[in-house]
Amino acid sequence: MSLDVDAILKAHYGNGPEALDVLLAHSRCVAEKALSVAHRVAHLEPDLGFIAEAAMLHDIGMIHTWAPGIGCRGEAPYIRHGVIGAEMLLKEGLPGHARVCERHTGAGLTAEEIIDADLPLPHRDLQPETLEEKIICYADKFFSKNPDTLTVEKPMDKVRRLMARYGDNQLKRFDAMASLFD
């Protein structure tokens, strides 16, 4: 069964065309990168159809956050976009896709990191676990939602520097994914 990803996105972004444009451009880049990564690890038998769908939906929750620079005028802090997206996709009957939403922030977050940083997130591990979750999380790090650079892939050294800003554990988890995928 193939999902109508565009219909799902449009149903949730009907009154946010600027945000939808940003989301679509970003998600297409992430999906393309994720599928490229998946082909490099074909021997691990990643689910390509799921990767294509989940990569397009991984940031769906951003519409309910306050990020006016990308057209989002919701009330929640942006850091919550993943858990909000997971709730949205659970209501759509997509639990696997929902897991990607809530587990793609940074290189994943541990309960300890969430608590120590006093993040407004559930106090539980939100780290990618499946191969597909890891591939999408990894691919996402190479693209921003800055409208000026939406489709520009960041070089590995810049991604690593950005990950390092969030601590050694983030960089270690990212490097572990990089060693698996590159």
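Above is the first protein from milestone M3; the second protein from the same milestone is given next.
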Amino acid sequence: MGTGGGELLKKFNHPAKNTQVTEAWEPNIKLLKQTLAIEGVRVIENEHEADIPVADNSLDMITNSHATFDAELVKQKLKQNGLFITQQVGALNNYSLSRYLDHNYQIAYPDNTLFNTVMTFEKLGFEIIYFAEYRPVMKFFDVRAIVYYASVIPWEFPDFSVENNLCELQNLAKIIHQFVSISTNEDRFIMIARKK
């Protein structure tokens, strides 16, 4: 699910004829058709990221890296003993930086936490095999890097622009000049669940 450009999937070395992928973003769909599809992987274009347009009880494993999912739909599509493996960007990703740049910032996906994900799958009868959280530090050594980063992740930095945030950016530039860098925390979690 949410295959992106297929870089992670290629590392799995899974037989192409036994692999099908979904993707909703048009530039990635084109890329997948030029790479994975010619190797024999079935590329499925999704209208919505969480869609899994395959037969019920037909999949041995579903992997998901940062994509939206519907837990009930995942259960419906997996065979008995099928695995769901997901790695997600958690709700608190870059919260301190987002909040600094926008004092009214509201978390875009507040329910996307490891706790909520594990509880949802347990309620659906899954066996939780593994889960973990990680909150690595991200350092910025130049305010231009912050400008670029905030520009490409609009759900974490809504209404960001140099003009709107000039005062905050100037303050961050002073801090970087004095202390070499500023830090924010990313939020990642992984869960592996088996359908009973």
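Note on the second protein: The beta strands are 20-23, 42-45, 59-65, 78-89, 126-134, 137-140, 182-185, 188-195.
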